[in-house]
Amino acid sequence: MKFNTISTVLVFLGSVFLTSEKFVDETNTPKFYFFLASVLVFIIINARSRKPITIGTFTGKTTLWGIYTVCFLQACYGLFQLAGWFPSNHSNFAVTGSFDNPAGFVAVLSLGFPIGLFLLAKAKKIEWYLTVAGLIVIAVAVFLSGSRTGMLAIFISCGVFFLLRINITDKLRHLKYYKSLLVLFPGLFICGALILYYQKKDSADGRLLVWKVSAEMIKDKPVLGYGFGAFQAKYMDYQAEYFKNNPDSEFELLADNVKHPFNEFIKVAVEFGVAGLAVILSVILLVTWKMLKSKNENRALALSGLASFFMLTCFSYPLQYVAPWLLLVFYFSALLPSKEIRISNSRISLITRVGIVVTCVFALSHVSSQVDAEMKWKTIAMSSLKGNTEKMLPEYRKLYLSGLKRNPFFLYNYGAELNVSGKFDESIAILNECKKRFNDYDLQMLMADNYYKKGETEKAIQACQHASNMIPCRFLPIYQLFEIYKGAGEKKMAVQYAGKIINKKVKVPSATISFIQREASEFLTGGLESYKL
């Protein structure tokens, strides 16, 4: 059965725009489950049908316009956020579109841009004006989002598309200063990249820190890596070790919680080692080579889309979102010839199709139960915030047993609620389970609070010190150490940490930091002049 244009565009539309306040993660979770359910339904429909399945039809004109229109609407959504007509989904960014931050927004627009170029090359009359208008809106939205990666991705995709579509290289060879131009173009690209680097130097240097620490992770397990999903479980421990060994590092004020290395290839190397990275790179090189040799009229479309995707993977995390995955599949399918696959009516075929349907129905049922659990989590989390923590703990327990125990963010939330209710041993147990999948500064601070309130001072101190090494620019860990030593009557250590608080560089001034420094100052001037800092 043909996966028709309407189905394709609707699935893409949902993967881009679907959000729901019924989920804790209002932007990404609804998109993921919608996509998963759509795929399962599609497989069930095709497995039940005896009609032939048609592949290689994803790049029809109507489909192209449908996907391009979705990208255009997403760009408009981002511009409306910038104008203040719609709220942003992130407190630190004015433009996020229907995603949790600009990364997803920019990934969709940058990957959709080559489709606009392809349509422009074939457009006539009114279609030409509509396509140009769309390209301008998308480019402006990416530029105003402040994403340097998105700007580079659009620039690269344009270059690749026009080189292949118009065959510029053959025309350039006839020019007098051909070799000079070959040097000029890379030079312009490098200059542009440097300008974008200095536009947000601190942000770029922060990524250099992440890559530097990630390199240490790869060095320790170079061949097979740490396993799927291990980056967000292991990285912050390595960052803590880095700052412990480099207390005066220039990156101190740039450190923060990190869940992704801002480079998909580095993530692969960390989690699957050099072996996994070699496999991925080999596949990419093979596919690229095949595309370059292809005579398919969609070659410029596919390669410009993949060039944009490659740029995004080098400096961002597009694969964390469903929509870029769909666009990646779209570009790979652009070079597939239209072909019908007929399923025979033999007994083996019938048994196979029944097995596929039954498996997908069970999978769909599991997806439904997970969606229900996620929605219940949001309900009880909101109730807990209103002061009903004790009443909600049995509900948290039920969700834990029903399948959410594999969700590290649920485990963190559950551990935090147990901490609030004074169940410190249970909180520690849940947070230790969370650490196997996710570990960061906030988790360490919560562990420190659990240990301190249990009276296990040494473990509380270790957790605070670990949190402080994870993000050295934060004041709360050393303030907590100051409070612990002060409460334990260890005045010398209390004075030492009070001095650290006063002399510590402030990254972002705030009322909390002012309060902490004022309290440390008052402690030092309260009769403890005899102690040396």
What are the main properties of this structure?
533 residues, mainly alpha, two-stranded antiparallel sheet, 22 helices
Show the helix and strand layout.
Layout: H1 5-17, H2 28-48, E1 53-55, H3 61-82, H4 102-122, H5 126-145, H6 148-165, H7 168-172, H8 178-199, H9 201-220, H10 231-245, H11 264-293, H12 299-315, H13 322-333, E2 339-341, H14 347-385, H15 389-402, H16 408-420, H17 424-435, H18 441-454, H19 457-470, H20 476-487, H21 491-503, H22 511-524
Helix pairs in contact: 1-2, 1-3, 2-14, 3-4, 3-5, 4-5, 4-6, 4-12, 4-13, 6-12, 9-10, 9-11, 10-19, 11-12, 12-13, 14-15, 15-16, 16-17, 16-18, 17-18, 18-19, 19-20, 20-21, 21-22
Write a concise synopsis of the structure shown:
With 533 residues, the protein is an all-alpha fold. It has helices at residues 5-17, 28-48, 61-82, 102-122, 126-145, 148-165, 168-172, 178-199, 201-220, 231-245, 264-293, 299-315, 322-333, 347-385, 389-402, 408-420, 424-435, 441-454, 457-470, 476-487, 491-503, 511-524; strands at 53-55, 339-341.
